[in-house]
C-alpha cells in the first residue's frame, strides 16, 4: 500500500509555486480585512484546508473569516460584515451573496474561489451565537493536532473524492474536510482509518476529547472536540458511510491506484440507454422545470423533498417505482422515475370496510351505489366490501398535470413551477437529449454504477 501512496501523493500535494500563489492572494485579502480593524474592531483569519495545509493540489479555495467582537449584535455583523466583504472583494469576479445562517460573500480571483464570512469572535465554542462561529475553533484545534498527518489527510480526501462521497454539501451528504481531518487525528494514519472503518457498524461513536454531552442517533458519530454537544458527522448519510466501509474493505483486499483517480467519464450512446431499458422491461417518466434562483444548500433539500413527495403520489395511484433521481443541468432540473409501467388499466380495485363494521359499511354502500365510475357491482372479498371502479389517472402525465402542485414540493420549486410550468418527458424524449452528462446520469440511474 505504501508504494501506492507514494505514487499518489506527488499529484495531490501542492508545489511551492501553487503554495506561493495561494499565500499571496490570502495575505492580500487578510490585509484588506485588517485595514478595517480600528474602525470596526474586526480581525481577519484564514481558515479551512488552506490554513491547515491539508488542501489538495488544484483545489483553489480560500476561506476568510471576519471576526467581530462577541458583544456585537447580529444586525451589525450582517450589514457591516457584508460591506467589508464587498470592499475586500472589490476586484474579484463572479461575486455573489450567499447565505449560511447569515449572509456572506463568494467570489473568484485568479481562479481561486474566495469566501469571506463574517462571524462572532467567541472564546468558548459552547457559547457561539451563530453556526459559523465554530469554524475558527475548528481551525485552531486541527492546526494544533494535524502536524505530521497532512499527507494522510490528503490521501483520505482524495480516496473519498474518487468514491464520490467527499463534501458536506446537502447535495452530497458526504464526509466534510473537518470530519476527514478529525478521523485522521483520531486514528493517526490513513491506513489505520481504512482498517478501522472496514469493521464499522451503524452508530459507532468517536469522541477524541471524551467529553460528549448528548447521545446522537446517526450512522457515524464524531463528537466535535470544540463543542461536546455536536456531531460533526450529522450530515453524513447512511449510504455514504456504508460506501466508505465497502471501498475500504475492497482497497485493503486489493490495493490499487485507481481508488485515487476518477476515470474519464464513459461516453454513453443513445443505443446503450435504449438497450438497457429494453432489457429491464421498464419505462422512464421525467418531470422537468426551470431551476429556481437559490443557492445549492437550499435547492437540494427541496429537490429531495420533491422526489419523496412525488414518489408517494405515484405509489398512492398504483404506479410501481424501481428507481428515481434528479440532475441539475445548466438552467433546468430533471426529476426521473423508473417505473414498472407508465400505463395502468382503466379499472381499479377499491377495497372498502369489513362487513361487520356496520356504520362504515352503510356509508360505503350509499357512496358507491349507482356511482357513474363503477365498473362492477359491490361484492365481498376476504370479509370486506369490494368494488371495481374507474381509475382517475392511468398515466403519470395525467396525474402530474392534476396533482403535482398539491403534494408538497418545497417553497421555491412550487413558486417556479407555478410561474413557468413544467413538462413531462417519456423515455424516448429523454433518449433524444444529447448532453453527455445527461446520458451518463441515465446510465448510472439504470446500472447503479459508481464513478469509482
TrEMBL record:
Q: What is the lineage of its organism?
A: Archaea, Methanobacteriati, Methanobacteriota, Stenosarchaea group, Methanomicrobia
Sorted alphabetically, the keyword list is:
ATP-binding, Magnesium, Metal-binding, Nucleotide-binding, Nucleotidyltransferase, RNA repair, RNA-binding, Transferase, tRNA processing
Q: Which residues form the tRNA nucleotidyltransferase substrate binding domain?
A: 152-260
**Per UniProt, where does ATP bind?**
49, 52, 138, 157, 166
Q: Which GO terms describe its biological process?
A: RNA repair; tRNA 3'-terminal CCA addition
> What family does the database annotate?
Belongs to the tRNA nucleotidyltransferase/poly(A) polymerase family. Archaeal CCA-adding enzyme subfamily.
> How is this protein organized at the quaternary level?
Homodimer.
Protein name per UniProt = CCA-adding enzyme
The positions annotated for binding CTP are: 49, 52, 138, 157, 166
Task: Spell out the note in the miscellaneous section.
Answer: A single active site specifically recognizes both ATP and CTP and is responsible for their addition.
Q: Which InterPro entries match?
A: CAA_C, CCA-adding_arc, CCA_tRNA_nucleotrans_2, NT_2-5OAS_ClassI-CCAase, NT_sf, NuclTrfase_I-like_C, Polymerase_NTP_transf_dom, tRNA_NucTransf2
Keyword Transferase found: yes
**GO molecular function (one):** tRNA binding
Q: What does this protein do?
A: Catalyzes the addition and repair of the essential 3'-terminal CCA sequence in tRNAs without using a nucleic acid template. Adds these three nucleotides in the order of C, C, and A to the tRNA nucleotide-73, using CTP and ATP as substrates and producing inorganic pyrophosphate. tRNA 3'-terminal CCA addition is required both for tRNA processing and repair. Also involved in tRNA surveillance by mediating tandem CCA addition to generate a CCACCA at the 3' terminus of unstable tRNAs. While stable tRNAs receive only 3'-terminal CCA, unstable tRNAs are marked with CCACCA and rapidly degraded.
* EC class: transferase
Which SUPFAM superfamilies does the entry link to?
A: Nucleotidyltransferase, PAP/Archaeal CCA-adding enzyme, C-terminal domain, PAP/OAS1 substrate-binding domain
Organism listed in the record: Candidatus Argoarchaeum ethanivorans
